Amino acid sequence: MDTSSKENIQLFCKSSMQPVGQSSFKTEYSSSKEKQRCCGKLKVFLGALSFVYFAKALAEGYLKSTITQIERRFDIPSSLVGVIDGSFEIGNLLVITFVSYFGAKLHRPKIIGTGCLIMGVGTLLIAMPQFFMQQYRYEKYSPFSNSTLSLSPCLLESDSQLPLSIIEKSQSKRTDECEMDAGSSMWVYVFLGNLLRGIGETPIQPLGIAYLDDFASEDNSAFYIGCVQTVAIIGPIFGFLLGSLCAKLYVDIGFVNLDHVTITPKDPQWVGAWWLGYLIAGIVSLLAALPFWCLPKSLPRPRSREDSNSSSEKFKFIMDDHTDYQTPLGEKSKIMEMARDFLPSLKNLFGNPLYLLYLCASTVQFNSLFGMVTYKPKYIEQQYGQSSSKANFVIGLINIPAVAFGIFSGGIVMKKFRISVYGAAKLYLGSSVLGYLLFLSLFALGCENSDVAGLTVSYQGTKPVSYHERALFSDCNSRCKCSETKWDPVCGENGITYASACLAGCQTSTRSGKTLIFYNCTCVGIAASKSGNSSGMVGRCQKDNGCPKMFLYFLVISVITSYTLSLGGIPGYILLLRCIKPQFKSFALGIYTLAIRVLAGIPAPVYFGILIDTSCLKWGFKRCGRRGSCRLYDSNAFRYRIKLVPASPCYNVTGLHNEMGSNHSSWSFTAKGSHISGTNCDAGHSVHFPKYCSTFHFKEKLCFKT
C-alpha cells in the first residue's frame, strides 16, 4: 500500500472516531488553538536555533581571532596552525553522514541539544593547556639588565665577557628550558578540543535548518533561515571583539607580576590571554543546549504544505504517534530499513545535476572563504603593521557586520519580491561575479616590506638585498659574535629595523622602567640619513607613511566586497533546498556539508598556511634549536599568495555559474496551480531536471509534462 493510501486511511479513521454531534465551533476553536501552540513552538525552536548558531559562531570567530596567538604561544608554523583549524572539519566529517541521514528520522531537537553539549566540552578543552603549561617566555635583550646596570649588547653575546657565575646560571637555565621545550606538545589538546567542537556542531545545520523548513510556511521559510544565518554572522562579531579584548591582556595574567613584563601588545612577541575567551564560549555553548530538551519531536505542518505531506522528509519513518515501535525487534527493523535505503538515497541525490553543480561551485567558493577567514587577522597584522588586538577589532566591528547585513538583505529580498528559484539563481550569480571583481582590486592595496637590515635592505640601507646564510652579518657587527637565530628587534633612529641590538652593533644601553634604549650602534650610524647619536629602541619600526591610507582603502573595499558576496547567500541556500526532493532534505544538506568540510574546510587552512610559510624571511628557533614560528614575512609575497589563490578559483566559479544560468535559460514559467501533473517527473518541493520529460516547464517548485 503506498504512502498516500495509508494517509487517507488514517485520516478516515480519525474522522470516523469523532463524537457524534460535536460542535463545529468547538472543532474550529481547537484547530485555531492548536495552530497557535504550533506557531509558538516553532518560534521557540527558531529562537533556540538562533542562539545555538550564535554560540557556535562565537567560538569559531574567537578561534580565528586567536590564530596568531596560538602560533606564538606554542611556537609552531602556520601550516600546523592550519591543521589545528582544520580539526573542526575533521570532527564534523567523522559523523556528518550518519547524523544527517539517521538524525532526520529520530528526535531532531534532542540530537541538536546533545551536539551542543559536546561542542561546549570541546571548547573548554581548548583552554586547558594554559593551566598545565609553563609560563610564556619571550626573547628579550638581557635577563640581567635593570635600571641601575648598563651592559653592552655587543659583549653580552660572547660568554667570555661575562662573569663565570652568570654564565653557569644562564647555561643551567637554558638546559632546563630545553628539556621543558622538548616535552611540550600541548597544542594537541587544542587540536582535540577543536575536533570535539566539530563533532558537536554536526547536527545543528542539517537537522536544524531542515526542521525549520519542514514546519514553516513557504513564505516564511526563507525569512526564518535568513534570521538564523544573520544571527550566525553576529556571533563572529562578538567572537572577534572578545578576541580583541583578550589580545590586550597578557597571556599569563593572574599568574605573573605584570610589572615584570617588558613587552607591549604592539610587540611581535606579545601573546594575549587567548585561553580566556574559550572558557566564555564553552559556557555559552553548554547553555545553548538546554531549550532543545523541551521541544517536541515534530510539529503540525502548515496548511499550505498539507497537500505535500506524503512527501514530507519525516513521513516515511516518523509519523509521530501513528506508528510506535514498542519492542526492540521493531526498533531493529526500523534501523535496518533506514540502512537499506541509504545507498539508493545517495544515488538519487547525486543523480540530480543541479544539486551536483551547486555543490561544485560552493566547494570552490568555500576554499577561498576558509583560507581567507582563517588568516585574515594575520594578514592585517603582517601587511599593514597593525596589532593583533586592532586587527580583531576591525574585523569584528566593521567587516563581519557587512556580511550579516548582506545575508539579511538577501532574505528580505527573497521574501518581499517573492523571487522564484530561477531568480534566486540569477541573484546568486550576479552577487558572486561582482564580489569577485571587487576582490581582485585588493591586489593593489598593500604595503611595502619594512626595512630590516640583512633581510629586506642591506646594512647601508639600499635595496634589494641578496639572501644568503650570513645575510644578517656585516662589517659593522663582525666583532660582536651575535646569534643569527635570535629575534629581539631594535628600531634604529634611521628607520631601519635590526634583528637584535647585537646585530645593530650597539655598545651601551640604559633601562628606565620598561623602556630600553641602546646607544652607539655602529650599524645604525653607517645607514643614518641624518646626524644623531646612532641610537635605537626595542621593537620594530613602523611601516611607511602611506600604509595607514592603504589600510583605510583596504577596509572600505573589503566591506563592500563582503556585503556583495553575502547578498547571494540566502538565494543560493534556497536554491539548494529547492533542487532536492523533500524526503532527502536533511540528507542532502548533510552531504553538502560533508563535501564542504572534506574538500574545503580541511585542506584550505593547511595549504594556505603552507603558502604563507613559504613567504617567511626570518624563522624563530626554539630553545633546543628546532624551528618555531615565523618572525618576519615578505609582505609582497604574503599578499600575492593569500590573494592570488582565492582569486584563481573565481574564474572557475563564474564558469560554473554561467553553466547554471545557461541550463536555466531554457526554462519557461507558467502558472499551473499548486499540484504536479503529468508522469515520469520527480514529485516534491524541488526544482530539478526530469529524466524523461521532453518538454517541461517550471513554476518555482513545479514540474509537469506538456
Automatic annotation (TrEMBL):
Recorded family membership: Belongs to the organo anion transporter (TC 2.A.60) family.
UniProt keyword Nucleotidyltransferase present: no
Domain (Kazal-like) ranges: 470-525
Membrane topology: Multi-pass membrane protein
Main location: membrane
InterPro entries assigned to the protein according to its UniProt record, in alphabetical order: Kazal_dom (IPR002350), Kazal_dom_sf (IPR036058), MFS_trans_sf (IPR036259), OATP (IPR004156)
GO BP field: monoatomic ion transport; sodium-independent organic anion transport
Keyword terms: Cell membrane, Disulfide bond, Glycoprotein, Ion transport, Lipid transport, Membrane, Transmembrane, Transmembrane helix, Transport
Record's keyword annotation contains ATP-binding: no
Transmembrane segments: 42-59, 80-104, 110-132, 222-251, 271-295, 354-373, 393-413, 425-445, 550-575, 587-608
Location in or out of the cell: Cell membrane
Designated name of the protein: Solute carrier organic anion transporter family member
Taxonomy, superkingdom: Eukaryota
PROSITE patterns: KAZAL_2 (PS51465)
An example molecular function term from Gene Ontology annotations: sodium-independent organic anion transmembrane transporter activity
Species of provenance: Callorhinus ursinus (Northern fur seal)
